[in-house]
# Entry
Amino acid sequence: MNNLKQNITSIVQKTALALLIATSVTGAACAAGGAIKGAPEAKYVDWSWAGVFGTFDRAQLQRGYQVYKEVCASCHSMDLIKFRNLNEAGGPEFSEAQVKTLAAEYEIEGGPDAEGEMFTRPRLPKDPFPAPFANKNAAMASNGGAFPPDLSLIAKARGHYSFKDLFMGRDGLVGGPNYVYNLLTGYEDEVPQYILDHDKEVNAKALEAYNKALVEYNEAGDNSLRKPDAPTPHNFDLGESSFNNHFSGNKISMSQPLSEDSVEYTDGTKATLEQHAEDVSTFLIWAAEPKMEERKRIGIKILLYLIILAGLMYAVKRRIWENVRH
Amino acid sequence: MADTGKVKEPGRRDFLYIATGAFGALGVGVGAWPLLDQMNPDASVKALASIEVDISTVGVGESLTVNWRGKPIFIRHRTAEEIKTSVNTPLSDLKDPEEDSARAEKPEWLIMVGVCTHLGCIPLGEAGKYNGWFCPCHNSVYDTAGRIRSGPAPKNLEIPEYSFISDTKIKIG
Amino acid sequence: MSGHSTYVPKSDAGKWLEKRLPIISLLHGAAVSMPNPRNLNYWWVFGGIALFMLIVQVVTGIVLAMHYTPHADMAFNSVEHIMRDVNWGWLLRYTHANGASMFFVAVYIHILRGMYYGSYKAPREVLWLLGMLIYLLMMATGFMGYVLPWGQMSFWGATVITNFFEVVPFIGDDIRILLWGGFAVDNPTLNRFFSLHYLLPFVILGVVILHIWALHVPGSNNPLGVEAKSKQDTLSFHPYFTMKDLYGIVLFAIILFYFVFFNPNFMGHPDNYIPANSLVTPAHIVPEWYYLPFYAILRAIPSKAGGVAGMFGSILILFVVPWLDTSKIRSANFRPAYRIFFWIFVANGLLLGYFGQVSTTDNFLGIAGVTNLVVSQMSTIYYFGFFVIILPVLGLIEKTKPLPNSISEAVLGAEGAAAEAAEQKA
# Structure
């Protein structure tokens, strides 16, 4: 009996240890990402909806929709979102009449009518958001060969789920909105100094290695070594792109879409760049995960139920086993 | 394995078992609901639940059939003759007695779900003994107000929820 | 399964049925009166948990199939339709997706428990083989299920895995084309994967029944690894182990539903929310976490055929474990040396899982000069070495601890066992 207990304890301890090693290994590897020295760190936004009890701020979602509609929508589609979603619970919750008006601002092809003709009619709540381009080729042709991705799921398709969020009880979804936020606020007018410094450093290292190899080559004096090639200097060239601190490779085809007062908020909120970015990121995570509020609300009840049930089951199990040695 | 607990406290042990069983059964019941409810019409189906129809092109004595919730809706612009025969039919002749005025908000416009109340076939228009509708599946005959007159169907053709948005436009559903 | 039944029908209807189809006494023998070693610890509840997870997957899967469209043009949007429009669709899909992961968690613990306590040794070899068959079928089912949402990871996962078969000599290319139904992963591939993804769980269910049957012939192993000999070594399955298993299932369900409700995408991959695109490969292709150790072995071997052979070999070698282990002692509790190698094996497996998702050319933990590739190769060597060297050799040379005479003696002490035996006689 005692022996067994010890064994179980030791098994538990060892499993815990193994798990700890595995997670710390993973964690260390994640931390050791290849960021350039001096690059600004991505901001970890304190999202109001991220916690276990977190819900969306309706006004923020409505502002976010306004940003999407007035800025993003000129290039980015949101094919999966229908106007009726704007009225549904857990979303921006525009009124039914508001949604009808919002939808009717756009037209859609209807028909065929009795004569077999197609016609245009105003959009209804059941219709999807209009797409800015007829197809992918048209979108690429209008954007210098770059394709503006559909934004319906972008907040779930970017960013990564981290152990940190898991252990903090945060919704694993924060990675995507964090990415969108940092991307939108991460533009620079000129290539920043840390990139130039990095180039310098890389070039110096390459030159050093070249000189060293050259000395070895000359010392060998025979054909046993290949003559090293002089390194081509590496210089960051922005070309037609814009500079962004948080985009992979720092060169992005999308020029800075948002700045102060890009959108005039009707609710009096100060339209700073950060406010725009936060609002539209929140709108996009709602669009990607429209049932988040329902999910958490029900989840709390289900988990509470299961915990109580587990307690009861434990009591029953103990009762059954109380006079049995095992 | 002497069961001393039972002798000491007969009630408490049973109560624990019953409470746990009931609590567990509750969970199973609640858990079964999503599995069942997922078969109900989803949000995209419900969003299509009402349609608007332009009836300006339907002349007197003409009909229009539109699709609503996957079922045909008969929109009949009735002639004065049709209205008259229907209004003059004594209720005692009817299997499912209903006044003509209860069948049509505006007498000239008869709007019905075009599904036979027998077993769901689509009746043919301007047919049958009463020049109303006739269901070829099992010979149910409806009159010019869509009321069942003979055959196996138990009820009159169903009237959907509708309203006139204007003189030429109706909203069904 | 029937051997243990003490069921005697009481009602006339019961007697009538018993004479014609003794199904109630069969079930009674399997789940009520079956004698189980009294000393089973909580590691033994994972079999029941795995069965529970299988049922969860089958039920949610059947329901999801009512809304899913297995067509390359519509699959992605139909999954989003489930997530957005279908009543409770998000709950059903998240439960199915996370349920797959948790099913593997339960099965991995179940397998490792078997390895720690030597549950595969005679006379339980067939039980082990059937279990491994279930595991193999699960991997196939899980893989095909992951393809169905038709996101980027679905598509490229399918492409990578089906390309494994190209290394088969002579007919490799034909096999690939046969699997695809075309010259690349496309709509025919998706269609057949859906069909098989629906079929295989029922095959698994069938093998599970055989697995339980094979369990009931010799009965459960136990933490001591000493066969149950007398009546006081065992307890009836019900209520003792039904209650313990149910309690374990509820605890496990808490973890499952934590993920479903509060971190439903944690075990998934963001790229799978991008529709499949046959012209662009995602930057990092990573399989589902439960395949990562095997994927690491694939990548550790620097030749295509060798990698594929190593990967399949690492799974197939599990089938012959009962014949590789030469030790007569089952439980690692009495094999101090084996216990150490076992836990290294577990840690090594986790490490392989880590290597399955990092770049092979990066340095291991940032240590200069030591690439992940080199360390993952050592891990791979240990993985195979554990089976082909440690298991056969250790059994012959290790010094084991003395075994107790019986379960009841170990649990109750010699006097207690005698007393209980006397009590039962009386």
